[in-house]
Each structure stands twice: as structure tokens, then as C-alpha cells.
Amino acid sequence: MPEKPADKPLLQGWAVVDNTIGEDWTDVQLSLVAGAPQSFVQNISQPYYVRRPEIPLPESAQLTPQTREAAINGRDVTNLLTLNAGAADDKKQIGPLTGVQGFVRDPTGAAIPNARITLRNEETGASQSTTTNAQGMYRFDNIQAGNSALYVDATGFRRFQLTSFYLGVDRMNEIDARLEIGTSNESVMVTAGAASPVETSESSIRNYAEGEAPEAEAKGLGDNFEYKLKQKITIGKNQSALVPILQSKIDAEKVTLWTAGSNDVLRALWIKNTSGLTLDGGSFNLIDANAFAGEGILETIHPDERRLISDAADPAVHIADRALEEQKPVSRVRMTKGILIATHELRSSHKYVIRNADTTPRDVVVEYQVRSDWKLIDTLKPDETTTNSYRFRVPVEAGKSSELLVEEYSPQDTQYQLASLEDE
Question: Does residue 348 sit in the same domain as residue 244?
Fold first, then answer.
């Protein structure tokens, strides 16, 4: 991060190159190709046995690196929202309706996105389904209370089943699921993992660190992309080197990120890849004020693409959720073929009170889950929209609080029909 506010952050990209061919590389021309071709390794001579799960010891606190999905609709991040918090003062606070929410994680505690969640009422047989978002979160709203069953399915994991449990009335029930990895012939990718140690050639790194860093020329190769180094390099056999492939100023700003329903408030960067190169996925480190400020994981970012990347916790920001619910009067009545259909509007509101206990101001980005059959009111526009979330930006001054009011509406139809007719 820059020392002067007017400067842009500096992005440095490095590739770990391993020489495993059994002979030295002396002044070789190196080209690095990255992408995501389908590939796998299969050992056909090793016998397979029934797998026993490995259960980790519980940890008092765990902050797993996460990736953030790309936006499908958004505005420039420099625009701010004008929030009308007083619009809900005259609403009656009745609390949340019956619902279920939770997180789906793998055995390491990492989030599992796109897992299919099926909720079934065992008394009526009615069922409904949804999928988890990028943070592994799911949510069902306005459901029927009673004896229920929950099923979680995800590729590469065993099915999670929870049956014969009771959903409480007029409250949000919390049910988390931790999936076990499936059979050994299934392909499984998890978002968390420790980086492997690298044996590094000190002579190679020293040459590049002293100002002789080779520049990389990038170009697309179909679905892949290439970093072609302009300067020749030298790496001894069975040694590794960190090769610089990118050094560019980019657009980025510090924000605080919170996903509605989560307990984690994170420090994050809202970056735009203005380097002109494709950034391959991997880990990143953040250096701020010449000190280590955090690290995380990013996915492949294409030129001019904007992403949110989180790197640390933000304990100075506290957020409270006040749920509001109301039903608007009937707005439309239709009669056809002996059936009367009355349409009314169901309104759902969440008022988020954001407190900044730090001595410096914050820009807080609130991620609010997109729900089917629900729409935002016309006066509320998110800064960015993804396939699973709306992202609202709220400025909060030092030592003060701000409010964000998220209002949604959903048309509801009620049908009336005379079951029987007599002469009277």
C-alpha cells in the first residue's frame, strides 16, 4: 500500500519455478503458461480401502481465507449510497418469521459454495431447495414450522442428512453442516490449504532482488495465458527460484467487508486489475506501512475486472441486525372461473446499525443475499451485484455509527373458492 494517499498501490507478482529435469539451467529463455485445463493423476496399481475420516481438534478461533465472487452488475466503487434510515421509523418491529440458515463447510472448516440444500416438512411432505453462496451460506425464509428434514449435497462429498428435528416458530433456526469427503475416486477441491514449502536458490533470488528483475510479456493462448520473460535466467538442478513476472500500479482501496448473517467482519481490498495482464489465482500478502497486514486467496482476475479480496479481521467494527416485517394491504383482486385471487405485497426490511470504534473512518461493504421472488425497492441501488449477493457501501466516521436499511418486496397471491353450493 502507498505511503502517500494520492499514490496507487503497487502489485508485484511472482512465480515459483522448480528445476526438476536433472541438469542446470544456464541463461535459459523461460515462458510460463497458466490457466485451468482439465487434468488429473490416477494411480491404477494402488489398492483402495475404505476411508476413515480425520476429525481435527476444535479451535477457539479460526479465520479461513475466502475468495469473493465476481460482479455481474455494478457501479464505480467511488460512488457512495445516500441512505434513508428514517423511512422505517414508523414500521412495526415484529421480528423474523420462521426460517432456517447456516453454513456448509468441509472437514478443514473451509466454505463449500454451490452446495444444494433441500428442506422438507415431514408432516406435509412439502419441500424446497436452494444453494449456498460463495461463503458457504444458505437461508430459507417464511417457511412452515414443525418436524423437518435437511439434506445437503455437494460434488466430492458425502451427503449430509438431518431428519426428525423441530423447527421453532417465529424465529430463525441455525443449522450448520460439515460434510465429509466422499470416496477416494472422486475429485475434491477445497478453498483452504497451507502452501507447500519451497527450496529456493539464494543466488537466483539475489540477482532479481538487486534490480535485474526480468520483465514479462503476457499474451492470451486460447483459454490459457502466458508470461514470457524477456531476460534469461539461471537455476541449478533440483533448485527453485522466485521469478518476478509482474510489477504494476493498480486501483485499490481499503474497505471493511461483512456478509449478512456472518460473525466475521473482515478488512478487505476492493481492487481493479489495471495491470493489463491476467492475474493467476493463488495466495497474496498485503504490506501496509512497511509491515505485514494480512494474507488471503484470490481467484483468477482478468484485465479491468474488479474484485473484493479479504486479508484480516476488523475487530473495531460492530454490526447489529434489526429485522422488520409488514404486510401491505390488498392491491389487486381478480375473479376467474369461480376463483377469487387477492394480491398483496409482503415487505421485508433489515436495518443494519454499524458502529466504528476505531479512530479512523471506515467504508463498510455489506453483502446481502439475493433471494428468489424478492426484489429491492426502487430507491435502493447496490454498488455491485453478484449472482448470490447485493453489495452495499456505507461510510462510517470514526467513533460513530451509520445505518443501512435494506427493503425488499414480494407479491403474494391468496385464492378463495366456494367449496360447495346449496339452494339457500
Answer: no
Determine the Cα–Cα distance for residues 324 and 349; give it in Å rounded to an integer: 5
Claim to verify: residue 239 and residue 301 sit in the same structural domain:
yes
Total domains in the fold of the chain: 3
Domain span at residue 384 reads 317-417
279 and 372 both lie in a single domain? no
Which phi and psi angles does 230 have, rounded to 5°? -80, -25
Cβ pair 391, 384 in contact under 8 A: yes
Has residue 213 been placed in a domain? Answer: yes
Question: Last residue of a domain, which of 259, 278, 313?
Answer: 313
DSSP β-bridge partners for residue 334:
341
Q: What is the pLDDT along the chain (424 residues), one digit of tens a residue?
A: 988 888 899 999 888 899 998 899 999 999 888 777 777 888 888 887 777 777 777 665 566 777 777 777 765 544 444 444 444 444 444 444 688 899 999 888 889 999 999 998 888 888 889 999 988 999 998 888 888 889 999 888 888 888 877 887 777 888 889 888 875 334 333 333 333 333 333 333 334 433 444 456 666 665 678 888 888 889 999 999 888 888 889 999 999 999 998 889 999 999 999 988 888 888 899 999 889 999 999 888 888 999 999 999 999 999 998 887 766 666 788 888 888 888 888 888 889 999 999 999 999 999 999 988 888 988 888 999 988 999 999 999 999 999 999 988 888 888 888 777 777 7
In Å, what is the CA distance from 304 to each residue of 206, 251, 279?
33, 10, 11
Strand ranges (E), 168-290:
172-174, 177-178, 216-221, 224-229, 233-235, 240-249, 251-259, 265-272, 282-288
Mention every residue, 6+ apart, whose C-beta is less than 8 A from residue 182. Answer: 156, 157, 158, 188
